[in-house]
Specification:
Radius of gyration: 12 Å
Largest sheet: 2 strands, antiparallel
Distance between the termini: 27 Å
Number of domains: 1
Low-confidence stretches: none
Structural class: mainly alpha
Strand order of the largest sheet: 1-2
Helix content: 25-40%
Number of strands: 2
Shape: globular
Length: 66
């Protein structure tokens, strides 16, 4: 799974509640998560230790700028 914050449809409004922003500060190059990493994040979120991933794929941000 590739998490690209630039293509997230809820970027800005959901960043503060997203595990990527909390843990990594939304790196501009995005984040590649393996299946094991996704499972680990789900376990941590279920335990209330980190927020859930809030990514909503919204397509190419250049399309929204037009």
């Amino acid at each position: 799974m590739h998490v690209d914050c630039d293509t997230c449809a809820v970027r800005g409004s959901a960043c503060a509640e997203c595990v990527i922003s909390v843990m990594l500060g939304a790196p501009p190059e995005g984040v590649q998560l393996s299946a094991d990493e996704r499972r680990a994040l789900h376990v941590l979120a279920d335990a209330g230790m980190v927020p859930r991933l809030r990514l909503v794929h919204g397509g190419d941000p250049r399309d929204r700028a037009a």
